[in-house]
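fyi for ur records
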Amino acid sequence: MNWTTGHILGGIILFILVTQVIIRLIRKYCKFPIPAFMVAMIDNPIRRKIQPPGEMPSRHGITPGMTVLEVGPGNGTYTVETAAHVGPTGKVITVDIEPKVIKRLKTRVFSENIPNIEGKIANVHHLPFANGVFDAIYLIAVVGEIPNPELALREFYRVLAPSGTLAFSELLPDPDYPSRRTLTKWANQAGFRIKDKLGNYFLYTLIFEKAENKGRDG
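which gave:
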């Protein structure tokens, strides 16, 4: 590697870092869901290599027969895999605030004839479900997009069964990526404690369960 090549690579790395900082600053103060037209960009081969759809249900502690809530289905890649994992006795209900995302998911579910997936337009700050109806809830690179994640986690606590689990999978360079410490703080404040943690700083999964007492550290 000569001097010129080294500086070119250094410039590229610097550009990526600066761009990441700018985007993260914008997203910090302007929270909004990923537009429907960008969903295909997010569901790409690199993402599926890092977070293999077929492995994520097991990583999230999901087992056959469960009733599962997914927040932010995107193209439905992870939704479909989770539905296959819970099997015919289980069910996946997936919610998004963007109507076009749910419409696209319903079209896919219909065309692929998947009976155990239900898509709903919903705001995670006020979920349209009764208390304690879900065995598991999971979010993949979504929680950072939520304007008030603390309120959303309190809703997750409400609709989750007493023995249920709440799983988050995050990765860099997602501009909405929260650190494990931040996410754990939010969860503790909502009444959860850590049950399991996988991965590292750049790519992690945290699984929470309901704590005996709200606010208890995990």
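The CA atoms of residues 47 and 171 lie 9 Å apart. thats all i got for now
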